[in-house]
Amino acid sequence: MELGFCEPEDWFPEEPAAIEATRRLYAILKDMVQRGHNLELLDCWIGDEDEGEDEDEDKGTVVLDVSLSQVPADCFRVFEGHLFSLKS
User: Fold this and answer.
1) Longest C-alpha distance within the chain, in Å?
2) Contact between residue 78 and residue 39 where contact means Cβ atoms under 8 Å apart
3) pTM metric for this prediction
4) How many other CB atoms sit within 10 Å of the CB of residue 26?
5) Pairwise CA distance, residues 48 & 33, whole Å
6) Other C-beta atoms lying within 10 Å of the C-beta of residue 4
7) Phi, psi angle pair for 64, to nearest 5°
8) What whole-number percentage of the chain has pLDDT above 90?
9) Which letter, b or e, does each residue of 50-88 get, where b requires 16 or more Cβ atoms within 10 Å of its Cβ?
10) pLDDT tens string 46-83
11) Which among 24, 37, 46, 71 is placed 20 to 30 Å from 31, CA to CA?
């Protein structure tokens, strides 16, 4: 499945608290970018890896240029293993 920005979907339920936390993060990030700051956001998780995975395998980090003026707050998501280069 290809990752993308979209509003929450019924087929992928999310906790209301998680949705609200993402909206708050978005507001902070957008404010900082609009004030002229250059921001990068990396979402990664270390721990609880699948035992069957090859530890030497480098999955790499996907870099995404994200314009917060084009992605509405309700559609913003962070994706594990992705580095967001944020712009206004």
Assistant:
1) 45
2) no
3) 0.78
4) 19
5) 33
6) 9
7) -120, 130
8) 57
9) eeeeeeeeeeeeeeeebebeebeeeebbeeeebebebee
10) 765 555 555 545 567 889 999 999 999 999 999 888 99
11) 46
